[in-house]
Amino acid sequence: MLDSWTQALVFLLLSFAVPIAMLVVGMVLRVRSRRKTSPIKHEIYECGEEPDGPAWIRFHPRYYVVALVFVLFDVEAAFLFPWALGIRDNGWLAIADMTLFLGILVIGWAYAVRKGAIQWQ
Amino acid sequence: MTWTDLAPLGVELILLAGALSLLIVDLILPPGDKRILGIGTLGVFLAGLLATWTLPLDGLALGGAYEGDAMGVFLKRVFLLSGALAVLAVQGHGPKAWPRRQGEYHQLILYSVLGMSLLSGVRDLILLAVAFELMGVPLYALAAWQKRDAGAAEGALKLYLTGAVSSAATLYGFSVLYGLSGSTRIADVAAAVSAHPSPLLALGATVAVAGMGFKLGVVPFHMWVPDTYEGSPTPFIAFLSVGPKAAGAAALVQLLLPGHGALLGTVMELFLVLSAASLVLATLMALPQSNVKRLLAFSGIGHMGILLMAIATGTVDGLASLLFYLLGYLFTNAGAFVVVHAIREDGGDDSIDSFNGLVHRSWFLSGAMLLFLLSLAGVPFVVGFWAKLFVFMAAWQAGFEWLVILGALVSVLSLFYYLRVAKAMFMGTTERRDEVPMHWSVRLAVSICLIAITGMGLYPNPFVAVAEAAAKAFLG
Question: What is the pTM of this model?
């Protein structure tokens, strides 16, 4: 009991120590510019693209619909892998189960296609 | 697991197979006339109802997480009837108002009823949470069905946000119960409460009950109810105000009553306070309403107070009175909302004024509405009287004399606002003399509700006997 708490405490201390140490090391080692401020200094550091326009815009709902259809197949894949491992033990029952499961998912996919959920215009 | 283990879930399988088949039919049908989907949905509900009499639904399923018993069968009938009535009443309105979305509307109702049907026999916290969500999530979409209407959007958003918060609260409560008892089986949780009572268990139960209270719409978690009722399609409200409320009461019963009401004991004071607050505040807030849907919303909140009173007894009599109450309330409230729907279809705006002089335009609708209102108020010879009387008797025997007196007083007061609508119908004046146009489905739905409430009002005994048998089967 005490050991596991000690580990947690060490982990907590480390998780404080590492970022503080990184900041301190950075402060010592970094190249200083002469000017106090410059546009380059205000740029996002190693965080991808420069943002273009405000982030508070309204996204078209079709993005969410496509995301939903994606989840459909994502879930399918997540279930297919453990099923493939167990298929030898469970035989035809497993195959019937998975056929039913895939059948229901295919109905969902057919619904999405028929209702124009993945038409992009 | 083998296929025979699923036998107690016969009704659920019928609903699921029906919903999926209708989805395929919807895809095959050319866009245009989709009336067949509504008729098909009614067929699925009727098949489910038939199955409650013909299939063997007793026994364990899903590894013991579900157990079919007589109470489950009784509740399934209530849920299926509420779904069927709501679908029936929308058959005239749907093809006109949203012809291209008929398939989805009926699908969502079917899935919601599927979730309720699962709730009728849960023995496990996880299945309880899943079934509760399966019931609740379709409702959010259905509430926003009139999507161009700002009021509908507001009502649906309120329902969605309170629903999301309440689900989080319920799940948090369940996690505390699980963490302290070490089991998700409700019977084990109840045993743990009896063996080692702890304030933390009471906390878990309290949070879970509060979450369900949001869904039921009891004071102080009621603020979404009037807005959602006002903004959503009225036939859907005929469903929302009955089916999910009955399912919420069923969930509370399944969670709190096992193990001689061990978990109920930890939240008893909360229950009584919520019940009294719902009774009093709902009545006071219903008095000044000028919109019939808002008025019926507050009246519904008051009825939830009576449901809580019945659950709080924890006795066989109390549970039997609750089940009978749900059955009576189903027909009464659904009927009232279908009448409101008929007036709305005629060009009314849900205000009490649009009921003015209704008796000159349709004796059928005005007479039916009068009986529904009297039943809601609890006047003799319609079912609402017996339903309230049985709950009050059970609560008196359980020692809640003050709550019964309060409930009776509030019932008398509630007659005043119910009769305001009646006054408008019979003593109000209107220029119009044309008959109110009614789709056959609306006429049929109102007739079914009328026959049910007067039949159960004049001969309550056979229904009470079934409810008692169901309550005994659950509490054993």
Answer: 0.89
